[in-house]
Specification:
With about 350 residues, the protein is an alpha/beta fold. The longest helix is centred in the last third of the chain and has 34 residues, at about 310-340. The protein has helices spanning about 1-25, 40-55, 70-80, 90-95, 115-125, 125-135, 175-185, 195-200, 215-220, 245-250, 250-270, 275-285, 300-305, 310-340, and strands at about 30-35, 60-65, 85-90, 140-155, 170, 190, 210, 225-230, 235-245, 290-295. Strands 1, 2, 3, 4, 5, 6, 7, 8, 9 and 10 form a 10-stranded mixed beta sheet that branches. Strand 1, helix 2 and strand 2 (about 60-65) form a beta-alpha-beta unit. About 50% of the residues lie in helices and about 20% in strands. It folds into 2 domains: about 10-150 and about 235-275, Bacterial extracellular solute-binding protein, family 7 (D-Maltodextrin-Binding Protein, domain 2, 3-Layer(aba) Sandwich); about 150-235 and about 275-315, 3-Layer(aba) Sandwich (D-Maltodextrin-Binding Protein, domain 2). Helix 5 packs across helix 14 (about 310-340), helix 6 (about 125-135) packs across helix 14 and helix 7 packs across helix 14. Bound molecules: ligand 6CS.
């Protein structure tokens, strides 16, 4: 009797274990790291993606915001190694790995008009057809790219022309083209990972940096700089990827579910950003009334705009034919986006 009962328990236990294994194999937990905090744009996007995946499947997404797994370069390595299934890394850092991704740092290439910009990101052949092949070569499935807002500079002193950036050690993300771009703007570019920026400004190692409005506000850049200058030179782009082996190993249904969740999060994040730039600049002014916020007029932007051709030539120099094809396609995509939104 005892033996039989033990046997029954053993059979039941084994059965439960099997069910557990079967459902664990079916309902996976996928890890997703990004370069910002939960309440910042990449975090909002990731939360929406998680919500969609968990609503439409048995899978769970575990989110890792900035700092929990290291710097941007660390989370990229973890995604390539398959420790993470998903990663959000901006071309600002990916440019060191995929040189063509630096195209997003040719000044004045992307428009500031929100509708045109959104149409470009929605429909661009460069983004949807060309970049995925380049990311795949690095073991990554490119799932989406989206804008995060107009990039403005923060400095200790006002900037009205490139000569005002002379002798300013200016932090840039770690890609060679951005270094060239800030050299052309007259500054002394200093590539640094994000985690070192606040301290470097505080201790005077650097005197300036650039980022979109929401990030200047949320990371309190106004505590360590005195002037915001917007010259319309760029819009911050980011990208979300999956580890390619992981993605290729998924069923077609799961791949479709992930793509649909990405599309929902993409539309959500564009909507979330309506008015975000203006609201963020306003909040900076409220937090620190002495902060100067200068939106430069056309004539003061011109000398910065005049550097664009040289930086573009440098991009082609760095990336050759492959980069030129991407750049040409992006220009064609931007033209159609403009035509379709007018
Ligand atoms: O400047 C940076 O490094 C950071 N900026 C933004 C807007 N997102 C993440 C990135 O690490």
């Amino acid at each position: 009797m005892t033996v039989r009962r033990t046997g029954t328990i053993a059979v039941l236990a084994a059965g439960t274990l099997l069910v557990g294994v079967a459902s664990a194999a079916h309902a996976a937990t996928w890890r997703y790291a990004f370069e910002e905090a939960m309440d910042e744009v990449q975090g909002k996007f990731a939360q929406k993606f998680k919500e969609e995946v968990e609503k439409n499947s048995d899978h769970t997404i575990q989110l890792f915001p900035f700092g929990t797994l290291g710097e941007s370069a660390d989370i990229m390595e973890q995604a390539q190694a398959g420790i993470l299934q998903f990663v959000d890394q901006s071309p600002g850092f990916t440019g060191a790995l995929i040189p063509e991704a630096q195209v997003f740092f040719v000044p004045y290439l992307l428009p500031q008009d929100q509708e045109t910009l959104n149409a470009f990101f929605r429909n661009s052949k460069a983004i949807h057809e060309m970049f995925p092949k380049l990311y795949a070569e690095q073991g990554l499935e490119l799932l989406t790219m989206f804008p995060e807002g107009e990039v403005c500079m923060t400095t200790q002193e006002p900037v009205h022309s490139p000569s005002d950036l002379e002798d300013v050690k200016f932090r840039v993300m770690t890609n060679p083209l951005l270094v060239e771009s800030y050299k052309a703007f007259g500054a002394t570019p200093t590539p640094l990972p994000w985690g070192e920026v606040y301290g470097a400004l505080q201790t005077g190692i650097i005197q300036g940096q650039e980022n979109p409005g929401f990030f200047l506000e949320s990371t309190k850049m106004y505590e360590v700089t005195d002037v915001v200058t917007c010259i319309g030179h760029n819009n911050f782009t980011t990208a979300v990827m999956a580890n390619k082996d992981f993605y290729d190993g998924l069923s077609e249904d799961n791949q479709k579910m992930i793509q649909a969740a990405m599309e929902s999060a993409f539309e959500y994040i564009l909507d979330y950003q309506k008015n975000l730039q203006d609201e963020s600049l306003k909040k900076i002014k409220e937090a620190k009334p002495s902060m100067q916020i200068n939106i430069l007029p056309e004539e003061e932007r011109q000398p910065f705009m005049d550097t664009a051709d040289d930086v573009e030539a440098e991009f082609i120099n760095m990336t050759g034919d492959s980069g030129k094809k991407i750049l040409d396609q992006m220009k064609a995509d931007l033209k159609s986006a403009k035509q379709n939104t007018q």
